[in-house]
Hints:
Helix content is about 30%, strand content about 15%. It is of the alpha/beta class.
Amino acid sequence: MKRVDDFRLTLGSRKLVPIVTGGMGVDISTAELALVSARLGGIGHISDAMVPTVSDRRFKTRFMSEKQKKYKYNVFNTDKSVVQFDLEQVAEATKLHVGKTMEAKRGDGLIFVNCMEKLTMGSPRDTLRVRLAAAMDAGIDGITLSAGLHLGSLALVADHPRFRDVKFGIIVSSLRALLLFLRKTARLERMPDYIIVEGPLAGGHLGFGMDWAQYDLKTIVGEIHRHMKQEGLDIPVIPAGGIFTGSDAVEYLEAGAAAVQVATRFTGTVECGLPDKVKQEYFKAAEQDIEVNLISPTGYPMRMLKRSPAIGSGIRPNCEAYGYLLDAHGKCAYIEAFNRALELHPDEKTLSVPDKTCLCTAMRNFDCWTCGHNVYRLKDTTHRLPDGSYQLLAAEHVFKDYLYSTDHRIALPPVQVASIG
């Protein structure tokens, strides 16, 4: 019976363990988590989502407080078009986050950064260009283009000296989305180095409508495989979403996948950036505690725990400090929803905004508990402790369980022994 370790991912001249850990933002997939994957020979993702905020938390910079101070006069203004990011600070934050991670890298694996197109930051093209270029400057091994079609993203950095060196990948949820990307980038003579196919059971934002349950990852991967073969394209295909055991992974690898991307099981690890109390919410979750909703201002459906504090929260938009989802005109769906609620209830001290959430503030505060569909199985991967909480796992343990397990078995960690005295 085959194990994941019987396969290898070929990327250029590199032979890698075919396990990719997903880039969960905002700093949920920490550098520490990605570094474990790289040390063990796989690929680890960090995320550049809200990277100035991440830099403030990790490196004690003051990008957000400086931005808030600059635009403090605009806090109560419903027009946010004046709010802009300092592009030099965005570049500095990216270089800090990526550069420090690359300096710490050990082993034969790689570190990639997940880069969301939907983080428009008031100036979609300019901020995306800076984020991509700064990551390349800082030595990143690869960039995964996510949360959007990215039809013009590669062109933004086509003149960068590392454009042919850095590995570029695209996340898609359909053959149609992949074809749009390939056609748009064909003139650059730069094919993606890998394709991540994210299915309907994935965590966070989904590349489907609210009819997501009608789709199946294996079917989508099969369609893309057939198209690649028909066109004579040899690009690694990496399925993602709902791959919970090593045996799940082997099924895809035997069917022709080059690797698998996994994330949910790493949310219960010590290295994950979620606060420990939130990790316990993930462990406790039952299947009925999960929902897919439309509260994200991006317009994409989003999977999360129903208990997420972000749901229904009517906090005042804090774009002067954050504003990561402001479009080129300074607009955001949450601002519009908040203003509607404020108009209806002008005297309410605490507003409820059920249809959208301030995703920037919610993600910054870890109040939006995004998750994969199989999060309810997380409790089966560890021990319940005498106080009723669940034992956290080491990322290395989870990685190796994927690598060596068979028969859909999950190896429990060594029992945590309480210290005496």
